[in-house]
Amino acid sequence: MYGRRGQAQHGLDILVYEDDRIEPNNRIGIQCKHVQKLSFDENHGDSIVKEVQKADQGQQDIKTLIVVTSLEANKTLTDAVSVLSDQRIKEGKFSIQIIFWNDLCNYINKDPELSAFYGQDPEILELFFKEIEDLIKDEKYKTALIKLNLNKFIDQYNIIFRCKKLFLQATCLLGLGDFKSLEEVLVELDKIKWEESNYNSLKIKWLIQTDIV
């Protein structure tokens, strides 16, 4: 943490060093913005330009300023930040990056320890499932299955999320043609009495495939 509440932080909440190398040219400043609205350069309210100006006036020599916000991803804001960052790099000044709530959730889901720690948040779990569903749409069944198997936290969660994980595992196994493992997962779903049209459709596909095989 950089300073404490009440002290002038010049737009910096956290200071870190890239690759843990404690050198001035490796210092990264992070500004956290839990706000309802964040503009690029409006005079009123919170804005990226204001945070950059604060960091410019501070005593910390940083290579990058990362603005982390609780807001959903915004293409217009991202593009404006990229243009400003490129311009500043040409001028020999620190670069700028913006990270949205969606990005944070994705970072958490990619790290097993963070995923286990924050996994109790339903919103983060939903984003995890969306990532799996996207992989399945692209027929990347093996990658999706590995990610599902690594996420042990969901097994301790409520019945809906447990069933969703099992259903996605079953979908991957069907896509991979692993009918023996698929049957085991379907047995687990039957124990829970999971009754959804998608599940019934999956069972029909399994029966058809096993009959063909």
Short description:
This protein has 213 residues and is α/β, with parallel strands linked by helices.
- Overall pLDDT: 81
- Uncertain parts: 6-10
The number of distinct structural domains comes to 2
CA distance, first residue to last residue: 60 Å
The description of the largest β-sheet is:
4 strands, mixed
Beta-strand content = 5-15%
- How many β-strand runs? 4
Question: Could you walk me through the main structural features you see in this protein, from its secondary elements to its overall organization?
Answer:
This protein is α/β, with parallel strands linked by helices and 213 residues long. It folds into 2 domains: 86 residues, no CATH class; 103 residues, Serine Threonine Protein Phosphatase 5, Tetratricopeptide repeat. Helices cover 55% and strands 10% of the residues. Strands 1-2-3-4 form a 4-stranded mixed β-sheet. The longest helix has 18 residues. It starts with 13 loop residues before the first strand and ends with a helix. About 2% of the residues have low confidence.
Question: What is this structure's SSE topology?
Answer:
Elements: E1 14-17, E2 27-33, H1 48-57, E3 64-69, H2 75-90, E4 95-99, H3 101-110, H4 112-118, H5 122-137, H6 141-150, H7 159-176, H8 179-192, H9 197-212
Parallel strand pairs: 2-3, 3-4
Antiparallel strand pairs: 1-2
Helix pairs in contact: 3-5, 5-6, 5-7, 6-7, 7-8, 7-9, 8-9
Structural features:
alpha/beta; single chain; 2 domains; 55% helix; 4-stranded mixed beta sheet; 213 residues; Serine Threonine Protein Phosphatase 5, Tetratricopeptide repeat
